[in-house]
Specification:
By secondary structure, the chain is of the alpha/beta class. The protein has one domain (9-252): NAD(P)-binding Rossmann-like Domain (Rossmann fold, 3-Layer(aba) Sandwich), CATH 3.40.50.720. Helices cover 42% and strands 12% of the residues. The protein has a six-stranded parallel sheet, with helices on both faces. Strand 4, helix 5 and strand 5 form a beta-alpha-beta unit. The longest helix is centred in the middle third of the chain and has 26 residues, at 162-187. The protein binds NADP nicotinamide-adenine-dinucleotide phosphate. The site of NADP nicotinamide-adenine-dinucleotide phosphate (NAP) has 31 residues, from helix 2 and helix 5. Belongs to the short-chain dehydrogenases/reductases (SDR) family. InterPro entries: NAD(P)-bd_dom_sf, SDR_fam. GO terms for molecular function: oxidoreductase activity, acting on the CH-OH group of donors, NAD or NADP as acceptor. Keywords: Oxidoreductase.
Length: 268
């Protein structure tokens, strides 16, 4: 029998370690800004030290970037099942191949990967994707709400295209809501961990990025709501800022010219 704090630690550590590990792998060669962190994964947080055998993890935005790295880390951590969700099939297949190579189980039958070619803005498509997860794995332990969008434009609110502005919220906030809502029934019978990818920009005001930065702030509050509403059922919800990592996302920021091109953040 384990105490409440043992349960807490047992749940927290594998996820945290796998995530941090995976993020550091992405940033190893491609760091956008100078950060005070180790360029390589260090032993304490190596996913090989975790044992997630028997566990099933859903990662959204798994077709590239941080989501791919997280998926690989979970494969290394010994997860038995991965549900990889994104819209781009070719990207998902690449991630699956990388996970199969990285997975620690000796044979494929102990490790299964389900590809979910789905856009998270569709409530129906997300619900049916979660049904697929249930049919294939019969369980779900961890949901990583990593999928997100950002636009490299730098317009003040008055110059923003309304559709583009709202699209960022539709993906980042409503998409995360859709996935969480559909996953909760299955998740409540598993390890009950939700990891939401936010950003340091949730705390910043960078002129021109009101769509993205407000959406990431909303994710912080949504994470608190998940914890408040489901904490007594054992759900642990974390909002994680991954650091600045040169994936396709920040690569959209113009290198030269543009008032935000050097990521100079202004806090009033
Ligand atoms: N990179 C950074 O420096 C940084 C910093 C802070 C926070 N973050 C956050 O970290 C997360 C991952 O970022 P990243 O850098 O890896 O970005 P990325 O390389 O642009 O990847 C974004 C992922 O989200 C998926 N996605 C986008 N729209 C989607 C939709 N409507 N439905 C389903 N999937 C969708 C994309 O897949 P498809 O296009 O195939 O659908 C892709 O797999 C994001 O939430 C981002 O805001 C990143």
């Amino acid at each position: 029998m384990t105490s409440q704090s043992d349960n807490f630690t047992g749940k927290l550590i594998p996820v945290y370690l796998s995530l941090i590990c995976s993020l550091q792998r992405v940033s190893k060669h491609r760091c956008l800004v100078r950060l005070n962190h180790s360029p390589t994964t260090y032993d304490t947080i190596n996913p090989l030290h975790s044992d997630l055998s028997g566990k099933v993890i859903l990662v959204t935005g798994a077709s590239r970037g941080i989501g791919r790295a997280i998926s690989i880390a979970y494969a290394q951590a010994g997860a038995s099942g991965l549900a990889l969700l994104a819209r781009n099939r070719a990207g998902l297949i690449e991630t699956r191949t990388a996970c199969m190579k990285a997975q620690r189980h000796g044979s494929d039958k102990n490790f299964q990967v389900l590809l979910l070619e789905v856009g998270i803005t569709s409530t129906e498509a997300v619900a049916s994707a979660l049904k697929e997860v249930e049919t294939k794995f019969k369980r779900l332990d961890i949901v990583v709400n990593n999928a997100g969008q950002f636009q490299g434009h730098q317009n003040n609110i008055g110059d923003m295209d309304p559709g583009s502005w709202w699209n960022i919220w539709t993906v980042n906030v409503n998409g995360l809501f859709n996935v969480t809502r559909a996953a909760l029934p299955l998740l409540l019978d598993g390890l009950r961990i939700i990891v939401n990818m936010t950003s340091i920009t949730a705390h910043l005001i960078t002129g021109g990025f009101s769509d993205y930065e407000t959406s990431k702030l909303a994710i912080l509050r949504l994470s608190q709501f998940i914890a408040a509403e489901y904490g007594d059922q054992g759900v642990l919800c974390y909002a994680i800022h991954p650091g600045t990592i040169l994936t396709d996302m920040p690569a959209q920021i113009p290198k030269n010219g543009g008032r935000n091109s050097t990521l100079t953040w202004r806090i009033p």
